[in-house]
Amino acid sequence: MSTRDVLEHLQRLGMSGYESKAYVALVAAGKPINGYEVAKRSGVPRSTVYETLGKLVARGAAYEVKGSADATDYLPLPPEALLERMRREFDGSVEALKSALPKVVAQPEAPLIHGLRDGEAMLARAEDVVAGARGDLFLSVWPDEARRLAVGVRAAAERGVAVSAVSYGEDELKVGTVHTRASEDGLGYRLLVVVGDRREAIVGGFGEGGAWGIYTADPAVAMMAAEYVRQDMALRILAERVGREELQRLFAEAPELLRLF
């Protein structure tokens, strides 16, 4: 991981850009250093470096120590201790918000639905749906997307969620009830369906022209998406039980079935 990555992660955990740079400079120094040295090593402007160091001291990420000639030097809280402190503070905030935040949420006038602008946004929202599932998960996925979702899906299974999936190609989920089927190029894109508890769903596609999709908390739409996966699975099971030739014969003798499938 590069220094830039470290700075970005520290900022995600609540430090400002200057604070993260000053903290990394303190850690990299390996000894107490003064504000001038911090500014020189970190790129934080000298005009703001002492204010920045004061903020680090206030949050407990650094300490003031007396240097030579009564000058003030700064020593960082060790990274392991800092990360553990951040973890405790983060977990504490999450626990507090679990009870407090729902009390300020207004009921939507209509079920939530919104577009997803690209593949990353769609997969991130799909991970949210997987993480929020408590009863069941229905998925229709291709290997690339399955690999991204696999960790969350396995965690869901471990907490007792019933996982049912259709996988186009290799089974990357390795959990729950998964039926694989051969890749199909007829649509021209890879369809993704993820349904949690039949109350929220992601439906979208990945193709050469990019990715598109929607998230919905409309239970009617979520139920329809789940039924799509369930019926696809049922057809796989039927083909396995009676054999592909017998299934084709059945379709040939029942045009209404052939029209539907």
Topology record:
Layout (H helix, E strand, L loop, with lengths): L2 H10 L4 H13 L3 E2 H8 L3 H13 L3 E5 L5 E5 L2 H22 L12 E4 L2 H14 L3 E6 L1 H16 L3 E7 L8 E5 L8 E7 L3 E8 L2 E7 L2 H24 L1 H10 L1 H6 L1
Parallel strand pairs: 5-6, 6-7
Antiparallel strand pairs: 1-3, 2-3, 4-10, 5-8, 8-9, 9-10
Helix pairs in contact: 1-2, 2-3, 2-4, 3-4, 6-7, 8-9
InterPro entries: TrmB-like, Tscrpt_reg_TrmB_N, WH-like_DNA-bd_sf, WH_DNA-bd_sf
Protein name: TrmB family transcriptional regulator
Shape from CA axes? elongated
The total count of helices amounts to: 10
Largest sheet geometry: 7 strands, mixed
Helix/strand class: alpha+beta
Uncertain spans: none
Strand order of the largest sheet: 4-10-9-8-5-6-7
On the 0-100 scale, what is the average pLDDT? 88
Number of discrete domains: 2
Approximately how much helix is present in the residues?
A: 40-55%
By CATH reckoning, the class of the largest domain would read Alpha Beta
Number of DSSP strands? 10
> What is the CATH architecture descriptor of the largest domain?
2-Layer Sandwich
Radius of gyration: 27 Å
Helices and strands, in order, run as HHEHHEEHEHEHEEEEEHHH
Amino-to-carboxy terminus distance: 49 Å
Q: Give me the CATH fold name of the largest domain.
A: Endonuclease, Chain A
CATH superfamily of the largest domain: Endonuclease Chain A
Strand content: 15-25%
Domain Transcription regulator TrmB N-terminal: 10-80
Protein name: TrmB family transcriptional regulator
Pfam families: TrmB
